[in-house]
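Q&A FORM
Asked by: J.P.
Topic: structure of ATP synthase subunit b, chloroplastic

PROVIDED:
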Amino acid sequence: MKNITDSFLCLGYWTSAGSFGFNTDILATNPINLSVVLGVLIFFGKGVLSDLLDNRKQRILKTIRNSEELREGAIQQMEKARARLRKVEKEANQFRVNGYSEIEREKLKLINSIYTNLEKFENDKNETIRFEEQRAINQVRQRVFQQALQGALGTLNSCLNNELHLRTISANIGMFGAMKEIK
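REPLIED BY: S.T.
REPLY: Here is the structure written out as tokens.
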């Protein structure tokens, strides 16, 4: 069996005179070296490591709080946007309904205006027809009167002589005189 001092590097005791050496037995030296290094790291690095972890923890908590605040703000903005959307949809529906009713009113006005214009045109047409009928009747009367007058004058001129002509004039004058007395 080996001596304990053979497997460790002793500070107060040198195994060989004037030389410094390493123990190459890995199974014996590694756990001891590791425990020493870990002990030193834990002793000196405990504060640094805990500070780093605390800082990281604080940053994570701050990020979580900020994200919660942003989430709440986003929720509020979303609710405002939804309320505005509902309001705009309601106004759009109102405009749509008003637009349809306005279109219907304008359509009825246009139809009524067309009917009024048609009635006016019909009345104007009927009045024009009556006027043209009256004019045609007057023209026919005038032609018949002219033809009758020409026929009567022709008959009178061919049948009348001077004596008959004077008697007819006297009789007509007598009739006009009798009419004046009646009035």
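FOLLOW-UP: Residues 1-14 have pLDDT under 50 and may be disordered.
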